[in-house]
From TrEMBL:
Residues 42-293 form the Alpha-carbonic anhydrase domain. It is an enzyme of class 4 (lyase). Residues 22-43 are annotated as: Disordered. This is Carbonic anhydrase. InterPro entries: CA_dom (IPR001148), CA_dom_sf (IPR036398), Carbonic_anhydrase_a-class (IPR023561), Carbonic_anhydrase_a-class_CS (IPR018338).
């Protein structure tokens, strides 16, 4: 009789343990799925950006990116410190990993690359990536006076106060992104070719390859003195509003052939072409966009009041005073992609 009782108790313990284990496995699976859903890899796409608002709570915030830069409504801030970079020359350094993650072309960067000046803290490089369109649709995320450029480069850094990018991403002062507009020039860009020449090796989603180290500084404009600055967010889910954006006024040039390689080589899941990977511009909701330089006769000092919500439409009022961009815009105001300079 005693043995029967012990046997029943033992079976009950096994059932409870099995049930608990199953619940733990189910919980772990839910956590894994939730983690995957909020990662940069899966469960969201550019074809239905409205779905981001319900799936990722931060994507419906009031400080989202990208935005349109109205060059006549920005605030001139003469006290913006210039950007000083350190460790960007990786020539002779270990190979760099280039990844097709299904959403973008991404290059992993070493922590020796840093922004030493320009912010209140030192920011450590983590990765750079690109946004682009198609032959018919230019694909920069930010716009200048409502005009898209063919593509845009983002160099992502995290605050050195934090251990890594993942920890910093959710902190108010966590991230600093350097953004550059990519236009079309008459000849190949040798610096960009170091990346673009490897695209055929990673055409399949989730594939990667290694490329020799090179001077990453050469992927950015020659001059870093003229830039726009505003507070915003990641432009992809989970859309954390923790990014200090720096957008350089001077653009970068690649050839038509190189741009076509970026637009036509990489694939996503189900062998679909990876293109038009840019988010639509978001409203400013009263945020100031600062400029380190005078953009025209209507530019204001940063100490003035921010624009009202009625100015959020950022109506274009080009008067030809913005030297770098206005020359570019005059060539083809409807689509920056067709311009060659």
């Amino acid at each position: 009789m005693l043995l029967d009782i012990l046997l029943v108790l033992h079976l009950q313990v096994l059932v409870i343990a099995s049930s608990s284990s199953a619940e733990e496995d189910e919980s772990s699976e839910r956590d894994a799925q939730r983690s995957k859903g909020s990662s940069h890899q899966h469960h969201w796409g550019y074809h239905d950006q409205d779905a981001w608002l319900s799936a990722f709570e931060h994507c419906s915030g009031k400080a989202q990116s990208p935005v349109n830069i109205d060059t006549h409504k920005v605030f001139y801030e003469p006290n913006l410190p210039p950007i000083k970079l350190e460790g960007y020359d990786l020539a002779g350094s270990p190979a760099l990993t280039l990844i097709n993650n299904g959403h973008t072309l991404q290059l992993s960067l070493p922590s020796s690359m840093r922004i030493m000046r320009g912010f209140d803290h030192v920011y450590v490089a983590a990765q750079l990536h690109f946004h682009w369109g198609t032959t018919e649709v230019p694909g920069s995320e930010h716009t200048i006076d409502h005009v898209h450029f063919p593509a845009e480069i983002h160099v992502v850094h995290y605050n050195s106060r934090y251990a890594n990018l993942a920890e910093a991403a959710g902190k108010a002062d966590g991230l600093a992104v350097l953004g550059g507009f990519i236009g079309i020039g008459l000849r190949d860009n040798d610096n960009y070719e170091k990346i673009l020449s490897a695209l055929t090796d990673i055409s399949i989603e989730e594939s990667d390859t290694e490329i020799p180290g090179f001077n990453v500084r050469h992927l950015l404009p020659d001059s870093l003195d003229r830039f726009y600055r505003y507070s915003g967010s990641l432009t992809t889910p989970p859309c954390f509003q923790t990014v200090s954006w720096t957008l350089f006024n001077d653009s970068i040039r690649v050839s038509r052939r190189q741009l076509a390689a970026l637009e036509d080589t990489l694939k996503t899941e189900h062998n679909k072409l990876l293109s038009k990977n840019f988010r639509a511009p978001q409203l400013l909701h009263g945020r100031k966009v600062l400029a380190s330089f005078h953009t025209g006769s209507t530019a204001r000092i940063a100490s003035e009041a921010p624009p009202s919500e009625t100015q959020d439409s950022n109506i274009m009022e080009s008067n030809g005073k913005n030297v770098s961009f206005t020359v570019y815009l005059q060539q083809d105001i409807k689509t920056a992609r067709s311009s060659v300079y």
